[in-house]
Amino acid sequence: MEIEDSPLLKEIGFHSTDELFQDVPQKIRKKELKIPRGISEFELTHLSQEIASMNRSFRHNFLGNGIYDRIIPSSVDSIIGRSEFLTSYTPYQAEMSQGMLQSLFEFQSIISDLTGMDITNSSMYDGFTALGEAARMAYRINEGSEILVPETMYRSKLNVLHSYMTGLNVRLVPYGISPADGTIDLESLEGKINDNTSAIIAEQPSSLGNIDRNVAKISEIKKKALLITYYDPIALGVLKPPGETGSDINVMEGQQLGLHRNLGGPLLGILSFRNEFARKSPGRIIGESNDTQGKRAFVMTLQTREQHIRRAKAMSNICTNQALFAVAATSYLGIIGPSGLKKIALKTMENSQKLINSVSRSKMLKRELNGVPFSDVILKYSGKGDLQHKLAESGIAGGIELEKLIENPHRQLKGSVFLSVTEKTGTESLEALSKAIEVIQ
Amino acid sequence: MTYHQATYDEPLLSEIHSDNRYKVPEADENIINLIPEELRTDNVNLPVIAEYDVVRHFTRLSQMNYGVDLGIYPLGSCTMKFNPKFADRIASMENFSETHPLVGDDSIQGSLRVMYELQVYLSELSDMDAVTLQPLAGAHGEYTGILIIRKYHESKGELEKRREIIIPDSAHGTNPASAAMAGFDVVEIPSSPDGTVDLDALKAALSDRTAAFMITNPNTLGLFEKRITEIAEIVHKSGALLYYDGANFNAIMGITSPGLMGFDVVHFNLHKTFATPHGGGGPGSGPVGVKKFLKEFLPIPVVEKSPDGKYFLNFDLRNTIGKVSPYYGAFSTILRAWAYITYHGSDGLTENTVRAVLNTNYLVSRLGNDFKIPFGKLKKHELVLTTENTGKRALDLAKYLIDLGIHAPTVYFPLNVHEDMMIEPTETVSKRDLDQFADALISASRQDEESLKHLPVNLSVGRIDEVKAARQLKLHW
Ligand SMILES: Cc1ncc(COP(=O)(O)O)c(C=O)c1O
User: Fold this and answer.
1) Which of B374, B392, B388, B405 is nearest to B444 (CA)?
2) Which residue of A lies nearest to B396 if distances are taken between CA atoms?
């Protein structure tokens, strides 16, 4: 190694780099590293292209259920590609990191405005883990031993929530979702609420894809329990914000706000809550203050809740979060603006109606669920074999089976599939879909 | 040649008013009637700004932010090394970035191959037998690792009894926080006078109530725990497991490994050791490696390869802890780490380790006359000094550095050294960078205390009133 000739080595009085590791006992030295030797950038890029081409790209996309192919303004990628943002870290030296701090403060603000909630922290890992943290937070606040969850919650989300409940004296208790229209069965829910209920988790739209009018009614029946809502942020282009319908804590997955799908990660967890819960909340929070001259300045605050100070008694262990994507979401919302978000939400709904129309002639796919879908349209599938597989042969991604997502779906819904749309779903994709379905029949 | 921060007195996004003309597809307005009236809104509360103003705003803000691309960023414990641009380029290849997680194994053979290979590389680097890529940061990896340890004790019928996790006082805050989150009691043990694990204290703390001992090696003082195999032995003898916090893996990669040292569970920080960008605080990625006897507890799915060469997601692990995140982990970060390893290879990775350690020891020799650097001269990838002997506060020296345009080290961590600075130069700095840094820090220590208190003066803002920020909470514009 040429490093043996490094002038630094002589400066510290060592003859060989071996001396740097004299404190590592011989018997635990690594004898061999079974990893190929390094290659040049050119070779690496070529190899990567080859590997990327092993992935199949689809002309028509109908996959959603949490991760969506939405419009991403080019400016968003450009902003988060700024190396001053990309290659910085947690703003420990606040004065030198005002750019990131102000951006994160703006993220907190813009999300609080959009959701009508008081406070938003500066990001969590993703929607599911943020939901887990929200549930822990609710438990810290009122210590009830039960948290109510919709019975149709996706298995993956439920599993993550479950992991986050480890070690707490909390049971997750399912409440009913109507198989007729995919909305919350308020009677079932009310029957489960008692003095031990820490929180009620409600999804908007529901995991069956429909806009759920009953989410807004929970605050009337919730008693002492906290209402944790899980909103699709794009739906806020047309729906009343959770802050206006009684949410105590609101969670969102921010991937739709300017992030590429990236096989489902990294994502952006968004956590908002009411003022009085600030000191029980997890995660980093940026506050506005001023410098010695009275000039506006931003800094991390409420740090006494956090792991580096409170250690075992911290509100959460989270340290590294998703700051860069908080900047992406802020830029996205800034660029799209209020009328843009509304149009995107409306277009999504328009496309889900079109999708229902375009499959309506098919005998194999039937819309049996009543109610209004947002992005995810559930359809009863009566054909044979795996629809997702068959569609893939026609260059269409979509048609995921309900059973792959939900543990024990209602009897009436068994054998259903999802086809999801966004504002990007074009007529040509809808046509390709109806054609493919005809052929499959 | 140091950083000069721009000063724009940049307004908040909400204070900028211009026309928003960004175009999205037109939609049928009547669709809104499908939504129950009581749920509908006509008033989306977002600022109205032109796209060009949003871009200018964030471009100006970016110029008020320091990153690795601007120079040395010696935050101890954070491994702020150069983030290669080839990794960004690869991560933005559409066939990678535009894949949906539920598209099915057949359609993502390329992505699965990347994940599989990274699992193999991380296993090889750490001498662990199986790896999950699902955790999303170091702390999340810790949490995952502790859940695995919990499930292991549960499977042996010992969870009722094994309620404690032992952690040294020098540990990072996430360690006790993760252990507590997973429902364990944290038992903190003091370090010995030489800065390493106090074996007697460890022995005294260990019992049949111990679930695990959680450490990093080298420890947060940059010291290699020489008696690590002995530690492993006594921990295992008590029926507990040994957890490796991989935040400091950049000190030993290719030289030794947690597996060889006797660890059972380890997490990696891809955003540290494997040079993926830190993004102003994230995203990160915190894969976890385990020994064979713990593989059945890993979160699902793990990526496997069938004998015919096909990659697949295996959801079928007998005693899985379940899931810790939505899908398969931070894929684009995973991809960047894979690219880093593939580029550097076995030869380059080891050389990087040596350079990182060499740079640190050079700083020890440059700073050793002016600052007290406790616990011996030989360090691994980072050093901890105290400013006490200079009569100055670590915080003030840090502000002097940033005022010069040099990012300060970590201050006031670890907690077992007073007025400390934790310095990690990494391998991606030159001798000139190191000298400039050392000269600046030494010169800082020679300033008079009063003048230091007024720094910084050359940045976009002066010293910030943190007390006010916490007392008069203003978290929204
Ligand atoms: C020693 C140590 N352990 C754990 C962590 C936590 O890692 P992360 O920030 O990725 O969650 C850090 C990071 O800052 C660290 O320095």
Assistant:
1) B392
2) A93
Residue A299 and residue A233 share a domain: yes
Domain containing A343 — which CATH number? 3.90.1150.10
Q: What is the pLDDT of residues A219-233, one digit of tens each?
A: 999 999 999 999 999
Residues A135 and A194 in one domain: yes
Residues ≥6 apart with Cβ < 8 Å to A101? A91, A94, A286, A298, A299, A300
Query: Closest residue (by CA) to atom 16 of ligand 1?
Result: B77
**Which percentage of chain B shows pLDDT scores above 90?**
99
Pocket test for ligand 1, best of B80, B169, B172 (most atoms within 8 A of CB): B172
Cα separation of A433 and A1, whole Å?
59
Is the residue at A129 inside a domain? yes
Q: What is the mean pLDDT of chain B?
A: 97
Residue A163 carries which side chain, given as an amino acid letter? S
Confidence of residue A360 (pLDDT cuts 50, 70, 90): confident
Query: Which residues contact ligand 1 via a Cβ below 6 A?
Result: A 319-320; B 77-78, 137-139, 172, 174, 216, 220, 245, 247, 269, 284, 286
Q: Which of A63, A337, A344 sits opposite B48 (nearest CB)?
A: A337
CB-closest option in B96, B278, B343 to A88: B278
- Answer yes or no: do A374 and A310 share one domain: no
Subunit contact A163:B321, Cβ cutoff 8 A: yes
What pLDDT was estimated at residue A439? 82
Local structure of A242: helix, strand or coil: helix
Taking alpha carbons only, the member of B398, B218, B336, B295 closest to residue A23 is B218
Both A39 and A161 in one domain: the answer is no
- Strands, E, within A165-295: which ranges? 171-175, 197-204, 226-231, 249-253, 269-273, 285-290
B348-471 homologous superfamily: Aspartate Aminotransferase, domain 1 (3.90.1150.10)
With H, G, I as helix, E, B as strand and everything else as coil, classify residue B444: helix
Q: How far is B36 from chain A (nearest CA, A)?
A: 7
Question: Is A285 found in the same domain as A203?
Answer: yes
Q: For residue range B233-246, list pLDDT tens digits in order.
A: 999 999 999 999 99
ipTM above 0.95, yes or no: yes
- Looking at chain B, which residue has its C-alpha nearest residue A26? B256
Judgement on whether residues A216 and A276 belong to the same structural domain of the protein: yes
Q: Does residue A1 sit within a domain?
A: no
Q: Is A16 within 8 Å of chain B by CB?
A: no
Task: State in Å: Cα B138 to ligand 1 middle.
Answer: 5
Q: How confident is the model at residue A361 (pLDDT cuts 50, 70, 90)?
A: confident
The angle that helices A427-440 and A323-359 make with each other, rounded to 10 degrees, is 50
Per-residue pLDDT, A441: 64
Q: Which CATH fold topology does B90-343 show?
A: Aspartate Aminotransferase; domain 2 (3.40.640)
Same domain, yes or no: A405 and A321: no
- Torsion angle in degrees (nearest 10) through CA of A397, A400, A404, A409: 160
* Domains in chain B: boundaries: 90-343, 348-471
* Domain boundaries, position A43: 7-52
Q: Which of B77, B270, B273 to mutate to test the pocket of ligand 1 (most atoms within 8 A of CB)?
A: B77
* Same-domain status, A46 and A179: no
The answer to whether the CB atoms of B281 and A122 lie below 8 A apart is yes
Tokens of A173: 């208790």
Q: Do A323 and B147 touch (CB under 8 A)?
A: no
CB contact under 8 A, B95 and A321: no
The number of folded domains in chain A is 3
pLDDT at position B234: 98
> Is A256 inside a domain boundary?
yes
Asked whether residue A262 is domain-assigned, the answer is yes
Give the model confidence (pLDDT) of A191-205 as tens digits.
Answer: 999 999 999 999 999
CATH number at residue A267: 3.40.640.10
CA–CA separation, A385 and A393 (whole Å) = 13
Q: Is the model's pTM score more than 0.80?
A: yes
Calculate how far, in angstroms, residue B182's C-alpha sits from the geometric centre of ligand 1: 17
Atom of ligand 1 nearest to the CA of B141: 11
Least CB–CB distance from A83: residue in B67, B255, B282:
B67
Rounded average pLDDT over B337-358: 98
